[in-house]
Design goal:
The chain is α/β, with parallel strands linked by helices and 365 residues long. It has 2 domains: 122 residues; 195 residues, Rossmann fold (3-Layer(aba) Sandwich). 32% of the residues lie in helices and 15% in strands. The protein has a 6-stranded mixed sheet, with helices on both faces. The radius of gyration is 23 Å and the shape is globular. The N and C termini lie far apart (68 Å). It comes from Pseudoflavonifractor intestinihominis. This is Phage tail sheath protein.
């Protein structure tokens, strides 16, 4: 327990047995970078009709593809970040990243001509944002080694083509970001159609499975149209307190919805606003639990398994660290005891996956 007074802290930990849960009240926001000599700065676009007309046509098409989404929906907002051309380092990109730290972002994609140095900065920035409980996820081309991070999604495609010719992974990351941002909470991106593609990287079934298991987002073609194979991020090393399904984009999206709600609700509506009484703690617990019920109805959490309450174990540890004699206290007395500025809550639920793996038995009678 800290012995000095610093900034108020908000510690959120997803544990193996019970992830802390709540809701992100909105989703579908993409930050998209392009490099252009015109219109430098950040533009909040709610539709492709608002794409700045002075941008080059290739950049305008890159943005239109982001808005296209899939048959499951599209992004509700695109923060377009136009950075200057002709720079030999990452200065312009870093300035652009700094300019969007004030916004809430779900998915991020670099410019279609992103450099390896810029990719490294994008990864670094994304990890730093997620460490501060901001829920951005980066969509980037896979390179020689995976990022092994559930906040980094890596498209491994070298054989894509559309009617105009070859398409690189970097040129397609904005499209993928738009698709992922538009997926409703109860769905995944598995088998989301990509009708504009005429070819994808040729892989055998075994090679497809190996790529997915290695944390690569890949595409398949069923002879009729191209599709996203399975929605996975680059995480391959599961933390000791983690779960295997943290490698799935849908599950991480659910975790991020929860993180967003906890962070913004506590920081904006509770932190510093109320006396730290047991009754006020219970009010916050009720707010959290009620939203769990909404998440259960939306198919994000499994029905009937959510919970929230004051954390007895951590409260007890705090009191003991402060020299309070706890041996004679009942559990309820511990829960109601004054804890200074600290609020210890425990909540959890089971995140729901989508229907992706089918086994159907047909009996020929």
């Amino acid at each position: 327990m800290a012995t000095t007074i610093g900034l108020p802290t908000l510690k959120i930990a997803f544990e193996k047995a019970a992830e802390q849960v709540a809701n992100r009240s909105k989703k579908g926001y993409v930050a998209l970078f392009v490099r252009d000599a015109q219109e430098n700065g950040v533009h909040a676009l709610s539709s492709e009709a608002l794409i700045p007309s002075k941008l080059g046509e290739a950049n305008r098409e890159y943005i239109r593809q982001c808005f296209a989404g899939s048959d499951r929906g599209g992004p509700s907002l695109v923060y377009l970040v136009v950075i200057a051309t002709g720079t030999d380092d990452t200065t312009a990109l870093e300035a652009g990243l700094k300019s969007i730290e004030q916004y809430s972002i779900d998915y991020l994609a670099g410019p279609p001509d992103v450099t390896d140095q810029e990719l490294a900065k994008l990864v670094e920035w994304t990890k730093a944002q997620r460490a501060a409980y901001r829920t951005v996820k980066l969509v980037k081309p896979w390179k020689t080694a995976g990022s092994d991070d559930m906040g980094i999604i890596e498209l491994d495609e070298s054989g894509m083509a559309d009617k105009d010719g070859p398409v690189t992974a970097a040129e397609y990351c904005g499209r993928i970001a738009g698709i992922l941002a538009g997926i409703p909470m109860g769905m995944s991106c598995a088998y989301a159609a990509l009708p504009e593609l005429t070819a994808v990287t040729a892989r055998t079934t075994e090679e497809q499975i190996e790529a997915i298991n290695n944390g690569k987002l890949i595409l398949i073609h069923d002879g009729l149209q191209a599709k996203i194979a399975r929605g996975v991020n680059s995480l391959t090393t599961i933390p000791a307190t983690g779960k295997a399904d943290w490698s799935k984009i849908k599950i991480v999206e659910g975790m991020d919805l929860i993180t967003y709600f906890l962070r913004t609700t506590i920081e904006n509506s509770w932190l510093g606003r109320y006396p730290n009484t047991y009754d006020n703690k219970q009010l916050l617990v009720t707010v959290i639990y009620n939203f769990f019920l909404e998440l259960e109805q939306a198919g994000v959490l499994s029905a009937g398994e959510s919970f929230a309450g004051v954390d007895y174990d951590r409260q007890l540890q705090y009191l003991q660290s402060q020299g309070v004699e706890t041996a004679a206290l009942t559990e309820q007395q511990v829960l109601e005891y004054q804890t200074g500025s600290y609020v210890f809550l425990k909540c959890g639920g089971r995140l729901m996956d989508s229907m992706e793996d089918f086994e159907v038995l047909f009996n020929n009678l």
